[in-house]
């Protein structure tokens, strides 16, 4: 999961409820042609500047290597991460009041992670 964009958590002295925060949290309209709501990204793969960059992103995302300080792994393949999944993860984390959330691409992934945790 990438770091979500800064989002308002208060209006004046009034703290916003998680249900309100979920409406726009984790999405920056500037990154999607100014669309108010996030588009549905119909892709499973993403472009890299070079084969080496693609290899490094896969290594960072799979945990084989640590990304350089101050950077994130980036988008690689929908089984690892995806723009829509990242938005849902950010919003569920806000709703549940946790630091992070993770979605799984299959039920077996969720079950295995639970059993091996």
Would you kindly provide a written description of the structure presented here, covering whatever features stand out?
With 117 residues, this protein is mainly α. The protein folds into 2 domains: 1-41 and 82-117, no CATH class; 42-79, no CATH class. It has helices at 18-21, 51-62, 83-96, 107-116; strands at 10-11, 14-15. A hairpin with a 2-residue loop joins strand 1 (10-11) and strand 2. The longest helix has 14 residues, at 83-96. The radius of gyration is 16 Å and the shape is globular. 15% of the residues are buried. The model has no long low-confidence stretch (mean pLDDT 84).
Secondary structure layout:
Elements: E1 10-11, E2 14-15, H1 18-21, H2 51-62, H3 83-96, H4 107-116
Antiparallel strand pairs: 1-2
Radius of gyration: 16 Å
Taken in chain order, the helices and strands follow as EEHHHH
Mean pLDDT: 84
Strand tally:
2
Structure class: mainly alpha
Question: What is the gist of this entry?
Answer:
The chain is mainly α. It has 4 helices and 2 strands. It folds into 2 domains: 1-41 and 82-117, no CATH class; 42-79, no CATH class.
